Amino acid sequence: MDVLSISLLIALVIALLGLLCGVLVFWRVPTIQHKGIPTSSVSIIIPARNEEFRLKPLLESIVHQRHVSYEVIVVDDGSTDGTRELARSYGANVISNELLEEGWIGKSAACWAGSLVANNKLLLFMDADTVFTHPDSLSNYIASFESMGSGGILSLQPEHYAEKWYEQLAFLFPLIVMAGMNVFTVAGTRLKAGGSFGPCLLCDKMQYEEIGGHAVVRGAVMDDLALGKAFQQHDLPVRCYGGKGIAWLRMYPGGLSDMVQGYSKSMASGSAATHPLVMVLIYTWMAGALIAASMLFVSGFSSTSWLGVSIGLYILYAVELAVASKRVGRFIWWIFPLYPLLLVVFISIFTYSLYLSKRKGSVQWKGRNINV
User: Fold this and answer.
1) pLDDT value at position 3?
2) pLDDT score of 216 more than 80
3) What's the sign of the alpha-carbon dihedral 323, 329, 334, 340?
4) Which of 92, 152, 171, 318 is the least crowded, having the fewest Cβ atoms under 10 Å away?
5) Is the pLDDT of residue 159 over 80?
6) 130-158 burial, b for 16+ CB within 10 Å, e for fewer?
């Protein structure tokens, strides 16, 4: 056996191991299945800073919710557009969060301010770019939380909707964010969640206040992860579910620059919450995917059989991503055969995020300088 064949054989073993790791790290994503009429009322708290255009679909979806008692609190975080007027036109209670105290991150301060004026038993923190999927989404979400005992946090990662080309090429971000929460691996809940998802975070107001709420995570860039950890430290359960059938979101319709800034702000710091075993599975999958793509080129200098094996491996990785995407959101089919490009995009932005967090120490986001 020549050197090239031995190298290809080693590469094949690593690529197959990577494929297996991809299956194990994203084994199962639970979704809300419970249907019923909830007994608890909920305060929906939406932090918003210049969200005039992204907020409207959410408010429109909220007014159609049925079988549940709720109030909507929009915390305006110094908007200069029509966010306030839009929120009031939908009957929301609009409060201000313009004076940011030292040591607070804007979103945490807004969530805390909203909780202080909330009148209901449950608190639901929602990002402005989320949208309820169905008129029964909110009632099913709350009824499911009640069926679990109404303790701790029930957080959802909404279905990710990508429209423009750069959003499609960023597919690996929502996928790896979900995998990095630890609880979707073959080990299930035997691994503790890395925190909670931020776009839809539901909890009991009394428990939220007992742990100190967003005040105890005031300086955390990833307030959702930090708040989940705070609940866990008080022995309260933190559950992370997929949001299919309940809510969807589109994160960065504003352009490529917004997307790069947004992911750079959070990816490196957020990865610290991922369990080492899960991190090994993710890295092995990425290494295997890159090696499989490389084999396709290198095997051209070897026998026909190796070329066939390499093409088969490449197709398997594309299929694996296509299957995983069904649990993450809605993406167009042609991005999966381009998965090496998706990896390059992910690695480039993640490396930039590492630079910002480890060397520069800050990032610009929505006109503010945030320490990361």
Assistant:
1) 82
2) yes
3) negative
4) 318
5) yes
6) bbbbeebbbbbbbbbbbeeebebbbbbbb
Q: Which pair of tokens denotes residue 34?
A: 């419970």
Residue whose C-alpha is closest to residue 186's, from 287, 281, 317: 281
pLDDT single digits (tens) 11-25: 999 999 999 999 999
- Give the relative orientation of helices 172-179 and 304-328 as an angle to the nearest 10 degrees: 70
- Which two three-digit tokens encode residue 90? 């939908």
Span of 47-61, 134-148, 358-372 with lowest mean pLDDT: 358-372
Residue of higher predicted confidence among 120 and 359 = 120
Strand partners, 71: 43
Q: Which pLDDT value is given to residue 211? A: 97
